[in-house]
Amino acid sequence: MDDVVVQPVNLAERVDAALAVQALAFGLTEDEIAVRRHIVLRHLQNPGAIAYGATTPAGRLVGFVYGMPNDRAHWWSTVVEPYLRGTGNDDWLDDSFVITELHVHPEYQGRGIGRELITRITDPVEQPRSILSAIDVESPARKLYRSLGYQDLARQVHFPSAMKPYAVMGAPLPLRRR
Ligand SMILES: CC(C)(COP(=O)(O)OP(=O)(O)OC[C@H]1O[C@@H](n2cnc3c(N)ncnc32)[C@H](O)[C@@H]1OP(=O)(O)O)[C@@H](O)C(=O)NCCC(=O)NCCS
User: Fold this and answer.
1) What are phi and psi of 158, to 5 degrees?
2) Cα 77 to chain center, whole Å?
């Protein structure tokens, strides 16, 4: 990880830097960045929402993760619930910490920062398990999540406005160590 430091971050204050990282890591258009900005700031107001950032010694944000205790009333839950019900896994929506976003700047990927971010954010939470969604293809993200103990709870999940289907994954906490 060189000298990149992972620690809690005030993501509302760093939202533009975070979205710049996400735009490079995940691919976002200018319009999508503007929409995400509102969504992220709203998410961070949820009770129990927490964020960790990865910063260089110069203070540059090169990765971030945020999440919150899951709530079945949240938009994300309402979309995935029928899919999880279909596979008999909808109980995962209760007592679960949802990872909403995790992104590492491409120049800093492959150094253990993503693993450190998701492990550090979930370690202190009181929920016994974690859920998230990831594009339903083999990717570094899917490989990382599996290595941490996440398993597929539903696949080919379609979010309105997203072109590609997602997989919903869940893992017991604390996440598995290497
Ligand atoms: C997914 C992501 C956050 C991982 O961050 P990272 O800092 O590169 O990951 P790490 O260096 O901690 O690697 C952790 C694990 O991820 C997997 N991984 C990372 N890079 C990989 C690659 N290029 N190919 C395959 N697996 C890879 C491996 O399992 C790795 O574990 P290992 O080092 O024991 O082999 C990062 O690749 C990213 O931002 N990707 C684009 C955005 C994205 O997809 N975000 C997730 C949305 S659901």
Assistant:
1) -105, 120
2) 14
Structure tokens at 126: 């009181």
Is residue 25 within 6 Å of ligand 1 at its C-beta?
yes
* Packing angle, helices 140-147 and 113-122, rounded to 10: 50
Indicate the CATH number of 5-172 among 3.20.170.30, 3.30.110.30, 3.40.630.30, 1.10.3470.10: 3.40.630.30
Grade residue 178 by pLDDT with cuts at 50, 70 and 90: confident
Residue ranges per domain, the chain?
5-172
147 CA: nearest ligand 1 atom: 29
Q: Is the CB–ligand 1 distance for residue 142 below 6 Å?
A: no
Q: Which two tokens stand for residue 22?
A: 């996400």
Q: Give 62-108 pLDDT, tens digit per residue.
A: 999 999 999 999 999 999 999 999 999 999 999 999 999 999 999 99
Question: Whole-prediction pTM value?
Answer: 0.96
Residue 161: strand, helix, or coil: coil
Atom of ligand 1 nearest to the CA of 134: 48
* Pocket flag, ligand 1, residue 169 (CB < 6 Å): no
9 C-alpha vs ligand 1 centroid, how far in Å? 21
113 lines ligand 1 (CB under 6 A): yes
Q: What is residue 150's three-state secondary structure?
A: coil
